[in-house]
Write a structure and sequence with these properties.
Helix content is 72%, strand content 0%. The protein contains 16 helices and no strands.
């Protein structure tokens, strides 16, 4: 009777493309993640802050349409209306539109264009730093821990790597799953905000003045996605229990935030003590013999780039480090001493996460 070879035989088929396996992993992961009711609620909730910021864009553009961005005192002298939505837009212009590098010789139209660009940049920056970065940490914590740990627990490696699939394709597929979540939480709402600003603007030429802001939105989201996605996947690859990976993810964000807040508070207390000593010695006081205390760091002011003090402990916390890099991308922060430490810290975290991922994914092949 004939004998049949039932052992291992090399696969002789044709693949649709070099990255078709990574695309299959990505689409399957996205479909499985979207079945979570909590994830759908979190993504929907992540769009809610955009309503408040859209109202800010409308108020600012209304102020331009009414008073061409003048200060409250100038509008009062001219007898302009000081109530309604235009007033809120003027307050936004006075708060977010101030720049130390402003040219006093600019024409009124050029001044309005420069103010609009700065206000839009700071509004988008505050939107991406204050609500979206925190919500992204929650959403990633819902999706990332199970992406690789579930494969470890179910022994899915035996199925994956018996097919024409390499470790790099597996990692890229998992990264694409989280990158889609990042885009849904940060990129799409921010682009919708920019588009809303264009719609409520009194002139269609605003597109030529702010054409690069969508590119900066994408770049800022990439700067946020690279370290967070890689770190979350590294945690997921280190354990077969998704609960442990989830705890490690949120514990890292919380512990680093607390450490940053503690060190920043210590700096503030030291500055207050130095101020008190200077007042006691009579140094650097004004005509009334009073020296104003250092301004306390405000979370929203720092998120919008209004607070110009250098956060020398930003490299300790992923949230604050990414915020500084995003401020640099939007052109709000340009000082190298403020940008380099968090950039080096995020690069080190990303590199370490890649090495851990490569080591863990290659482990079944070495066995």
């Amino acid at each position: 009777m004939p004998l049949h070879d039932v052992g291992y035989r090399a696969w002789r088929g044709r693949r649709r493309g070099p990255w078709s396996a990574a695309m299959a992993i990505a689409t399957t992961g996205i479909r499985l993640a979207w079945t979570s009711r909590w994830l759908r609620r979190a993504v929907l909730f992540a769009w809610s802050p955009a309503l408040f910021f859209a109202a800010s864009f409308f108020a600012f553009e209304q102020a331009i349409d009414e008073g061409r961005i003048a200060s409250l005192q100038e509008r009062a002298v001219r007898g302009s209306n000081l109530d309604g939505i235009g007033l809120l837009g003027t307050i936004l212009a006075d708060t977010l539109g101030k720049s130390d590098a402003a040219d006093p010789h600019l024409s009124r139209e050029a001044e309005v264009a420069a103010t609009r660009r700065l206000v839009w940049s700071r509004l988008l920056l505050a939107f991406m730093r204050a609500p979206q970065a925190v919500l992204l940490a929650i959403v990633v914590g819902l999706v990332a821990p199970t992406l690789i740990s579930r494969d470890l627990r179910a022994k899915a490696w035996l199925v994956y790597f018996t097919r024409p699939l390499g470790g790099i394709h597996y990692i890229v597929g998992k990264i694409a799953v989280l990158s889609t979540v990042v885009a849904a939480v940060t990129v799409l709402p921010a682009l919708a905000l920019w588009f809303a600003g264009v719609l409520v603007s009194p002139s269609g030429w605003v597109i030529t003045e702010t054409w690069d802001l969508p590119l900066k939105i994408v770049a800022g989201s990439v700067a946020l996605a690279i370290p967070t996605v890689l770190l979350a996947l590294a945690y997921s690859s280190l354990t077969a229990e998704s609960r442990i990976a989830t705890f490690a993810w949120f514990a890292t964000w919380a512990a680093c935030w607390i450490a940053h807040s503690s060190l920043a508070t210590a700096d503030f207390v030291a500055a207050m003590d130095a101020h008190a000593a200077a007042v006691t010695d009579g140094a650097e006081v004004d005509e009334d013999g009073w020296r104003p205390p250092p301004r306390r760091v405000n979370w929203v002011a720092r998120a919008a780039g209004i607070d110009t003090t250098i956060d020398r402990w930003s490299w300790i916390s992923p949230y604050h480090a990414v915020g500084v890099i995003q401020a640099w991308i939007f052109g709000v922060e340009t000082r190298p001493q403020a940008v380099l430490p968090p950039a080096i810290a995020l690069a080190a975290v990303s590199l370490a996460s890649i090495l851990v991922l490569a080591w863990r994914v290659a482990a079944p092949m070495r066995a």
